[in-house]
Specification:
With 113 residues, the protein is mainly β. The protein is built from no helices and 8 strands. Helices cover 0% and strands 59% of the residues. Strand 5 and strand 6 form a beta hairpin. The chain is globular, with a radius of gyration of 14 Å. This is Cupin domain-containing protein.
């Protein structure tokens, strides 16, 4: 099994950022068929447009302040907070302050690759 060890570990400096929307970029940190972890960086005022997908999503607010809307309900969340999005619910965020989110998706988001 040791010949596959390199595929177990990811170094953040070796992973590329991908611009997604104005003021927003993401970095895929790790993934397998049933799970994906993605870091998303927002400039202040940037918007994660309302969208929906079949994937269940858990998100940790690593830094910053965000207004998070899920299924028409909005909460202001800050570093250390988290949220969960069930499958197919419309959700989005607005970065009140610049910050980073760490998203986990199940199953993985194949369209991100």
């Amino acid at each position: 099994m040791t010949d596959h060890l390199d595929s177990f570990f990811q170094h953040a400096d070796d992973l590329a950022w991908e611009a997604t929307d104005p003021g927003v970029k993401r970095k895929i940190m790790a993934y397998g068929p049933d799970l994906m972890v993605v870091r998303v960086l927002f400039e202040a005022g940037a918007i994660g447009k309302p969208h929906q997908h079949i994937h269940r999503q858990a998100c940790f607010i690593e830094s910053g302040v965000f207004d998070v809307t899920i299924d028409g309900r909005t909460a202001r969340l800050k570093a250390g907070d988290s949220f969960f999005v069930p499958s197919n619910l419309v959700h989005g965020v607005i970065a009140i302050e610049a910050g980073q989110l760490v998203d986990s998706f199940t199953p993985m988001r194949e369209e991100f690759l």
